[in-house]
């Protein structure tokens, strides 16, 4: 049986019955057959990869896709739960599957599980067991039915969070009464870059060369301006199916780069939704044969980097008089600039240069409608006297648990000294 892996297109091969067995078709004859059929048969677009099998009777079938799409719901109450966790680098995602006896509605209904932490850089070989705690569930867009994706965090057998478990600390901050009462909202803009598989060069770029300068690609339309739209659209729909609060998507300034937005989300939910959306994106690019990178500056030179701008507001910011609350928050953020920068993503210094719509990594700044500042306030917020702020410093590879909880901690729980507050207010021209 001969097989073809056909990315992005579905080939319909119809051949006359022949006594020749599939095993007797030589590579040269097979190539000739494909060329002959491609001249006769139209190519139908498809968002999926399809494995086609040529049988000896000349018919084409897709047994694998039949099985992948098999709905087992009428035959069993059992479901498949895909347990997802963050690996040793703090940015890589890992997952494995297990059968659950019946559908569930809450992560507390799921059992804890374990994995080999020595294989993910999270435990020594002589004591490698790491325990997964289910924390959030989403519908599985790949398996469908009652199957689920499960966002987990990781602990030692003694119940201590391992170093890469940033969710645990975030949950503590978001459970603080001061934070709970302020109902913190987040809208996160996740930028990412698509790379060609073998050369690790952006999708749509000529290999070893560069496309035309930036300008026509941002929200662009056309084969010479938009590269990877099918991946972006497939991801959009898959996130909606999963129950992720995705609110939009667009092509970015650098060709081969895209963005999607998640939110508004409250508290710890923001991190859960971003991590699950990243997992889904990894799976889609895996199927498409394209490499996903969250590197904040994938191409050096006069090209935009990739960020994860985080929009943030509290109940007090959203109410009358909220602009004064926003300015007080900006003051606090200015005084903890270094703490935030150190937690906002690896390699961010290559992105935050003061160019390409970024502020310098070494200098804190804020402004109304200014995308070259550390913190941007929108025109509507200024006009209405209430609203939200946008932290433009986080890199595309930031941990959303860290960034969201740090924003809440700095603006709601941390109090500067009066002297530091006065100096910062004067420096930033803030009257609070």
TrEMBL record:
Chief localisation class: plastid
Domain of life from the UniProt record: Eukaryota
GO biological process, one term: glutamine biosynthetic process
Gene Ontology CC: chloroplast
Domain GS catalytic per the UniProt entry, residue ranges: 163-432
Protein name as it appears in the record: Glutamine synthetase
Protein's cellular compartments: Plastid, Chloroplast
Native source organism of the sequence: Cucurbita maxima (Pumpkin)
Membrane-spanning intervals of the chain: none
Record GO terms (molecular function): ATP binding; glutamine synthetase activity
EC number(s) from the headed UniProt entry: 6.3.1.2
Keywords: ATP-binding, Chloroplast, Ligase, Nucleotide-binding, Plastid, Transit peptide
InterPro entries: Gln_synt_N, Gln_synt_N_sf, Gln_synth/guanido_kin_cat_dom, Gln_synth_cat_dom, Gln_synth_gly_rich_site, Gln_synth_N_conserv_site, Glutamine_Synthetase
Self-association and partners: Homooctamer.
Annotated family: Belongs to the glutamine synthetase family.
Catalytic function, reaction form: L-glutamate + NH4(+) + ATP = L-glutamine + ADP + phosphate + H(+)
Residues of the GS beta-grasp domain: 79-159
